[in-house]
Amino acid sequence: MLTKKNLIFLGAPGAGKGTISNIMIAKYGVAHISTGDILRAEVAKGTPAGKEAAVIMKAGKLVPDELVCSMVKTRLAEPDCANGFILDGFPRTIPQADRLDAVLAELGTKIDCAVYLKVEDSELIERLTARLNCRGCDAIYNKRFMPPKVEGICDKCKSELFQRADDSLETAQNRLSVFHQQTQPLIDYYEKRGLLYTCKNTDKDAIAAELAGILE
Ligand code: AMP
After folding, report:
1. Which residues line ligand 1 at a C-beta cut-off of 6 Å?
2. Which residues are within 8 A (CB) of 18 and not within 5 positions of it... i.e. 6 or more apart?
3. Which end of the chain is more exposed for a tag (fewer CB within 10 A), N or C?
4. What's the pLDDT tens digit per position in 17-37?
C-alpha cells in the first residue's frame, strides 16, 4: 500500500520514468499515465491530435500545453485513478503544472510527491540511443544494460521490439536540451512546495526499494 499515492515522476528522457512506473504499477496497482504513450497511441490511430503531435514529437519538441492538458484531464477522471496514479512525463512545463493543480482541485485531490530521477546527460544519451520498446506491451529494454533474452523479442509477451523514432542521437539531444530549458524549472517549483523527493539511486531495483521506503 502506498500512503503517498498521487505521484509525478520527473526526469529527463531516459532517466527511467517508464521503467520505474512499470515496477510500481505491478507492485501497487496504481494507474500509469504516460503522456508520451497517450500521444503515441493518437499518432498510431491517425487522429487530428495525433497528426498535430507527430511532427513535433519527431523533432523532440514539446506538443502544445493545451493538447496534453486536456488529455490528462480526461484520463485523471477515469475511475482507476482514484487508487492513486503515476504521472510519467507530465507536467513538463510550469503552465502544465499549474493546470494540473487546477484539474486535481476540481477532482478533490492533490499531488502527494514529485519524484525526481536524476541522471547525468552523458548517461542519458547512452541509454536513449540503445533503448528498445515492445510493440505488444509496455516493456522497455536496453541493448546494453537490459537486453532481452532473445534479440528483438519481448521476454514477457514475445512481441517485436523496436527503437522509438525520437531515440535517434539527434532527436535525443534535442529532447535533453528541451528538458533543461522547459522541464527542469519544475524541480524548483515542487521543491519550494515541499513536494520534491530526489532519488539517490540510479539502478531500477535500487530506486524501487528506495521509493518503497518513502512512499509506503
Ligand atoms: P516521452 O515518451 O515522455 O519521452 O514523450 C515523447 C514525446 O511526446 C516528447 O518528446 C514530446 O514531444 C511529447 N510529450 C510527452 N509528454 C508531453 C508533455 N507533458 N508536454 C508536451 N509534450 C509531451
Report:
1. 13, 35-36, 39, 56-57, 60-63, 68, 89-90, 92, 96, 166, 175
2. 34, 36, 88, 138, 140
3. N
4. 999 999 999 999 999 999 999
How far apart CA 177 and CA 183 sit, in angstroms, is 10
- 3-class SS at 27? helix
Asked if residue 152 belongs to a domain, the reply is: no
160 within a domain of the structure (yes/no): no
The answer to whether 43 and 57 have CB atoms below 8 angstroms apart is yes
* Number of domains present in the structure of the chain: 1
Which among 9, 37, 2, 27 has a CA at the least distance from the CA of 140?
37
Query: Does 133 reside within a domain?
Result: no
pTM exceeds 0.90: yes
Give me the pLDDT at residue 136, please: 93
Residue 35 maps to a domain:
yes
Protein residue with its CA nearest to atom 5 in ligand 1: 36
52 contacts: CB under 8 Å, gap ≥ 6:
63, 64, 67
Q: What is the pLDDT of residues 179-216, one digit of tens each?
A: 999 999 999 999 999 999 999 998 899 999 999 999 99
Ligand 1: which residue has its CA nearest to atom 19? 90
Q: Which domain holds residue 49?
A: 6-120+177-215
CATH number at residue 96: 3.40.50.300
- Ligand 1 centroid – CA 108 distance (Å): 26
Q: Which helix (H) or strand (E) holds 106?
A: helix 94-106
